Amino acid sequence: MTVTDISGLAGIAHRYDSFFLDQYGVLHNGKVLYPSVVETLTKLKAAGRQIVLLSNSGQSGAFNARRLAAIGVPETLYDLFITSGDTALALAQEKRFAAAPGTHCFIIDSGSGHPGFCDALGLLPEADPARAELLLIAGSRGGTMTEADYAAILAPLAERAVNAVCTNPDKHMLTAGGTAFGAGRIAEIYQDLGGKVLWIGKPYPAMYDYAARRADVRPDRVLCVGDSIEHDIAGARNFGADSALVRTGILDTITDGERAGLYERYGVRPDFVLPGLIW
């Protein structure tokens, strides 16, 4: 398929009813907004387009909305904020995976905690891996911990065949100090140790299906915008939606040749490439 370079969304916005926008790498770099984000969101809303923020985050959409508002994007500029954490909670409530009340859950996160997830399901947060009956991989402290640190923590859980749920499949994440390994990489380490992982989030179908139900939109009327070929672009293709890759975020320093190599590696190409979230 042909990849079309565009300077912004103004020329193609009329083709879609809904825009599924990634958060990290599209709206901001982990600490500040990218230029033109507020302007672009404002113009999409003025054009009558639905805006759904679709983020691989173990935290809820409500939690992320508060954090996003603090750096300059009010909730009035979008319609829905849906995370992989929201999707995991919905699937658990639908009994799509085992998370019975009273289950002792060992949580790996970015340090912000996930009491909402545990409270909603009646899970018991467990600080001792030896007592854990479920492993939740929702975030990463890749900026301060090493992969070896995580392997040491995870090995006893894998030996006991404790099932894991990964609610943030991102292998890389943006931090204030640059790019670090994400929760998805930690889940891969757990698999390498012999552990079983249920993956929830982009690029896996359940998150897109959940978002489409919440947004009441068909895939062919959606444009998915993201900075990850592995997650955003592949997920959009599996969902049946068009996609646009931004040159900000985790791939902001790569060359056109390196980007083409990633298309081959993941077997997918975006419909559009643009410099950032620009109108």
TrEMBL record:
Signal peptide: none
GO molecular function (one): phosphatase activity
TM helices/strands, residue ranges: none
Pfam families recorded: Hydrolase_6, Hydrolase_like
InterPro entries: HAD-like_sf, HAD-SF_hydro_IA, HAD-SF_hydro_IIA, HAD-SF_hydro_IIA_hyp3, HAD_sf
GO cellular component, one term: cytoplasm
UniProt name for this protein: Haloacid dehalogenase
